[in-house]
Amino acid sequence: MSYDGFTHTGLSVLEHTIDDLRETPVFVACLAADAALPDGCRACELLDICGGGYLPHRFGRGRQFHNESLHCVDLKIVLRHVRAVIRQDLQPLVAAGVLPTSP
After folding, report:
1. Which residues pair with 64 in a beta bridge?
2. Residue 79, helix vs strand vs coil
3. pTM value?
4. Could you say which of 32, 54, 77, 93 would form a disulfide bridge with 99 (CB–CB 3.0 to 4.6 Å)?
5. What DSSP string runs through 18-76?
6. Does the pLDDT value for residue 95 go beyond 70?
7. How far does CA 28 lie from the centroid of its chain?
8. Residues 83, 85, 88, CA angle at the centre, nearest 5°?
9. Residue 65 — pLDDT band, cuts 50, 70, 90?
């Protein structure tokens, strides 16, 4: 499904339409990749933030895009840290009633 040249469509913005793009294998594969999220991603509290990771980082020959990002562990560390810092920084505004409490 993914190989050198896979993203080459042969299309030109001067000669083709968006509908032409929608029919290419790369476009179809990218749409299907969202449905191919692994169970670990679907259950993750950070899915709304990372979206399953950068698509090329999810590809594997056996399972195509049905893999966690190869950076998943590191992304979780960074995103959890950023969330904690933002929550801490916003706490005075929450305590003052300016912002609502968040989950």
Report:
1. 60
2. helix
3. 0.68
4. 93
5. HHHHHTSHHHHHHHHHHHT--HHHHT-TTHHHHTTS-GGGG-BTTTBT-S--TTHHHHH
6. yes
7. 16
8. 110
9. confident
Q: Which residue's entry shows tokens 């993203």?
A: 7
Burial 40-67 (b: 16+ CB within 10 A, else e): ebeebebeeebebbebeebbeeeeebbb
Q: Which amino acid is at 99?
A: L
Q: Terminus-to-terminus CA distance in the chain, angstroms?
A: 39
Structure tokens at 6: 């896979």
Look-up: residue for tokens 């991603």?
Answer: 41
Q: Tokens in use for 4?
A: 């050198």
Nearest C-alpha neighbor of 55 from the set 76, 41, 44, 39:
41
